[in-house]
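[SOLVED] Predicted holo structure with pyridoxal-5'-phosphate

Edit: marking solved, answer below. Original request kept for reference. I posted the sequence and ligand SMILES and asked for the 3D complex as structure tokens.
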Amino acid sequence: MFGHRSADFAALYNRVQPGLQELFGTADPVYLFTNSSWGAMEAAIRNVTQKKVLNCMCGAFSDRWHEVSLACGKEAGALRFPWGHPVDPEAVAGELATGQYDSITLVHNETSTGVLNPLADLMAVVREFPEVISVVDTVSSFSAVSIDKDKLGIDVVLTGSQKALALPPGLALCSVSPKALDRAAKTPGRGFYFDYLNFQANHLKGTTPTTPNIPLIHALESKLADIFNEGLENRYARHATLNALVHSWVERNQFSLFPQKEFASKTLTCVNNTRDIDVPGFIALLKKRHNCVIDGGYGKIKGRTFRISNMGDETEETIGQLLKNLDNILAEL
Ligand SMILES: *Cc1c(COP(=O)(O)O)cnc(C)c1O
């Protein structure tokens, strides 16, 4: 172990920057937060919202961002879409046109419903409102589909270690534009632990404001090496292929996708329980017989849906084996 004010740490910090910047599609710095993604989400609200934030809500994670905004004492608007539907760019345009907002939150891949929101179309709308700082959660899409922060004009993009990156939990990554930093400089009540200005001042010295999770940053460096050895295009293609394998399993077994197909996530599949199987029983048996774990549906769609992930380091072999195991269990039910 070494200290976070050491030259060794600065070298490690600076070594992970270029890879992270490439994955985020940005020339802006990427701050390393020692906390899970919710910390980086709360940080965004506290640093960029002065007047009112528009929370675009279409599932458990985007819904909760509204609660976080209110819990931070901010004025917040709730633009709600039914679970399983994407955020509609026209509705966003209409709401922003009221002129009430100085910031907006979007979840790229809504993990609870398996919806991949149309980020490019949404950002085309948000760019029409230069006073609005955009904040995008890419927790379950980062490094699995391409994210063009600078090209799309996104101000703040964040992700966490334990979902699409398949690292242990405890680290969040967040890239912040100069425009968002300017906003932060004029925003009172940023707090201490999450202050972007403090992150930026330390970034310039190759370090973090407080003691970071150094072991996880080593793991991140190793993961970045794996990602670039595989090649980004290959990594994106692998996720698309594995996702298509899961989709064909869904069809073959007379289930259906919870979201509309054109907005379906590339990293996980949220499946409608159209056959009315006993989902908790299905999952328990899968664990018992094959030591595999899938999810039995999130929050209010628990049991009505179940979710199969293909994010991280899954391969055709591992997903193929999982789907075979699922077939065995279905035959047993
Ligand atoms: C898991 C998840 C989060 C929150 O992650 P924590 O690690 O629990 O803080 C936020 N957004 C999305 C889309 C997620 O999938």
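OP edit: Residues 36-38, 61, 107, 111, 137, 139-140, 160, 163, 169 surround pyridoxal-5'-phosphate (CB under 6 Å). Thanks to everyone who chimed in.
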